[in-house]
TrEMBL record:
Record family assignment: Belongs to the HAD-like hydrolase superfamily. CbbY/CbbZ/Gph/YieH family.
Residues annotated for Mg(2+) binding in this entry: 6, 8, 168
Protein name (database record): Phosphoglycolate phosphatase
Keywords: Carbohydrate metabolism, Hydrolase, Magnesium, Metal-binding
UniProt GO cellular component terms: cytosol
Cofactors that this protein relies on: Mg(2+)
Length: 219
């Protein structure tokens, strides 16, 4: 069984470093910082969307060239602090160990750009656990389009009928449903509404619950 994980808000609590980077970019561009408590509603769709959402929140707009400049600054600055405060969520590695013992293998499908996704997973010490890591730019299309998930499954040597998606947001749930893949949602990630409202197949509140949730899906 292949388990495909989202990254931000699912495997790792990346909000402190992402929001710190956002504040750096926004202040460099002459805008205000963003309250940390807004992270759950702003994160989850990638760096460019994060910048766009932060600007919208302030009632601000920029032209395409300036947005590109802010995006490039975001990526460059983020790599300098990518794992300063970011941590895997409790129980991640133990859950992977347990799933692996029953034949599970793993991949990542994130709306993060591929390069920082790989850098982060390496710094967190878990990159070798994933057969394939797909970023927003890997296949030129982002979630909730099902293409990156389906191509991640293929690249990992899996099959949709033997795959479970694990994510934290409406985007992940919509992606899995469009791909015809069951989805388990964590309820501690980055979403502005309770993840249960988007009708995932299972909801967990801690990674220790993941193996049993997977078993329920498998009947």
């Amino acid at each position: 069984m292949l388990y495909v994980f989202d990254l931000d808000g699912t495997l790792a609590d990346t909000a402190p470093d992402l929001m710190g980077t956002l504040d750096h970019v926004m202040t460099q561009a002459g805008f205000a910082t963003t309250p940390a408590e807004d992270a759950r509603s702003l994160l989850g769709a990638g760096a460019r969307a994060l910048i766009q959402r932060a600007l919208r929140q302030q009632g601000a707009t920029v032209d395409a060239a300036r947005e590109d400049e802010m995006f490039r600054l975001f990526l460059a600055h983020y790599e300098t602090r990518i794992a300063d405060e970011t941590l895997l969520y409790p129980g991640v590695e133990a859950a992977l160990d347990e799933l692996e013992r029953t034949g599970g293998f793993f991949a990542v499908c994130t709306n993060k750009i591929e390069r920082p996704a790989k850098i982060l997973l390496e710094k967190l010490g878990v990159i070798e656990r994933f057969a394939f890591i797909c970023g927003q730019d890997t296949f030129g299309v982002a979630k909730p389009d099902p293409t990156p998930l389906l191509r991640t499954i293929a690249a990992s040597g899996g099959a949709p009928a033997r795959t479970i998606m694990v994510g934290d947001s409406k985007t992940d749930i919509a992606t899995a449903k469009a791909a015809g893949v069951p989805v388990i949602a964590v309820d501690f990630g980055y979403t502005d509404r309770p993840v249960q409202e988007y009708s995932p197949d299972q909801v967990i509140s801690h990674f220790s619950e993941l193996p049993k949730a997977a078993l329920r899906l498998l009947g």
